[in-house]
Amino acid sequence: xxxxxxxxxxxxxxxxxxxxxxxxxxxxxxxxxxxxxxxxxxxxxxxxxxxxxxxxxxxxxxxxxxxxxxxxxxxxxxxxxxxxxxxxxxxxxxxxxxxxxxxxxxxxxxxxxxxxxxxxxxxxxxxxxxxxxxxxxxxxxxxxxxxxxxxxxxxxxxxxxxxxxxxxxxxxxxxxxxxxxxxxxxxxxxxxxxxxxxxxxxxxxxxxxxxxxxxxxxxxxxxxxxxxxxxxxxxxxxxxxxxxxxxxxxxxxxxxxxxxxxxxxxxxxxxxxxxxxxxxxxxxxxxxxxxxxxxxxxxxxxxxxxxxxxxxxxxxxxxxxxxxxx
Amino acid sequence: xxxxxxxxxxxxxxxxxxxxxxxxxxxxxxxxxxxxxxxxxxxxxxxxxxxxxxxxxxxxxxxxxxxxxxxxxxxxxxxxxxxxxxxxxxxxxxxxxxxxxxxxxxxxxxxxxxxxxxxxxxxxxxxxxxxxxxxxxxxxxxxxxxxxxxxxxxxxxxxxxxxxxxxxxxxxxxxxxxxxxxxxxxxxxxxxxxxxxxxxxxxxxxxxxxxxxxxxxxxxxxxxxxxxxxxxxxxxxxxxxxxxxxxxxxxxxxxxxxxxxxxxxxxxxxxxxxxxxxxxxxxxxxxxxxxxxxxxxxxxxxxxxxxxxxxxxxxxxxxxxxxxxx
Lengths: 326, 326
What we know:
The structure is a homodimer.
Chain A: H1 2-11, H2 19-26, H3 30-42, E1 46-50, E2 54-59, H4 66-72, E3 81-88, H5 91-100, E4 107-114, E5 133-139, H6 148-166, E6 171-174, E7 178-181, E8 184-196, E9 199-209, H7 229-232, H8 240-261, H9 264-273, E10 281-285, E11 288-297, E12 303-306, E13 312-315, E14 321-322
Parallel strand pairs in A: 3-4
Antiparallel strand pairs in A: 1-2, 4-5, 5-9, 6-7, 7-8, 8-9, 10-11, 10-14, 11-12, 12-13
């Protein structure tokens, strides 16, 4: 139904097509037409409505296509294969399944839309069609389990550098791996690991990036805490395939540095990009509330927090972090 | 078919029942009877055969029963529920599924038999019916991912102490978590972890213990490297429920020590029980072959190996370890 409307609008070559004509051609009411138009808008089509003139197709969703992705990723060797989906429950779930079935390292799952995108701690990840990047990659790093949190921090550094390359914005890393622009979240990273004793079996690296979302795409309660590259850089849509390629190049480079030189250079880069350090913070940890000033990462990737008495406490994991009250 | 034979043998109250009678009652050949008898033996029944007298039921497999397990585990609080199976592919697989479905910490899966028991690195675990302990427990420890390898070492200490309590044998720990008696393996531990970034989501603690296996239960190639508590302690079968309870008590105790005092006391106990330390060793690590003398564990649970030049190298994971050649 909405496909037929799309055809009719497209045949108008950017000119208005009257609601009456659409209604007659499809044999449905003008209210029904309007509902189909809304569906198309959700898919990323930009449709202008005029009470007098009808509807006009003003913009198509920019779809990620295989040839375009292949072209952009030509210079990287970290991606071994790409699975591109229109709509999935969660790219993370699909990559998990592929990993269990033996998919090699570098298997990359990308979807235009997620119906149950997952963020850290089971939180939902807003994933409207054609607007963001929703991807999960199977990694089989030859690393001991203890090093997985370092990989989480490395991923944040790679993504931060990639986004800054695409759009020169003040993007910073909130420990451990959220990216923020002026306090608003722009991307999320979720590394899910499966290990056997002290050995990593595989890691599913999930990345969500709010690239071309507009303010209309967010539930109202998220507007004060979430933004997109497009909103933050002034309104023009960005090329998602270029963003993906930029991340993969950064990740490949930093991973090579990490394997040859260890965590120390990654640690330095993370600290330089962090918006978490040197600000009084209250952390909800499994062991209770910790108040202090985060001063650095330690060797294993934990956040070192200086307490009131001057002691430095390594924080391995925290539910949430925020400025202390009052 | 074999159930009917069992009935007939049981009705003999320990006396011989002729093959002729069995053959007539079941309407099958004496060769077919013999095949059914073999099946029963595999299930743990002890059946004596006499060419002249026929067959005699000399022993039944000792089955683990729920009331017996509940009774033995009454004093522990770490087990929240028990699922007892006759035969499964792998208790580890079942516990994984339960964990994914939300099973609480302490959910314990026990099976009399595994058809595809799994050991470390995808190796098979010999799991004949009624002879060993094959169990997997869902744990949801509030620990950062980095600490999972410490849990592996803690499990080895708990199991070693439990088995020594049951049978006073020279049982030692081979790094990280195999238990050996005079170089022969008596149990295996496999901790499979699922993590989200720096947080452990759940751990499936798999334990296989060769309790009452006899030499006939092992493929010939395993005899030089595998043994059972029964073989090592002189031939009498042991009470498996008591072994399970002994382990759970030790694990519960040591876990409480670990949570309140950290890894250091566990480290000390592990080192005292280890058969790995202070012997020249060749380790196949993902980074290559390392030769040296293991001297201790480090804080994060890695094995510290002193190299020829006196440096100490932390080994996080190794494919195999054996004495250097020649």
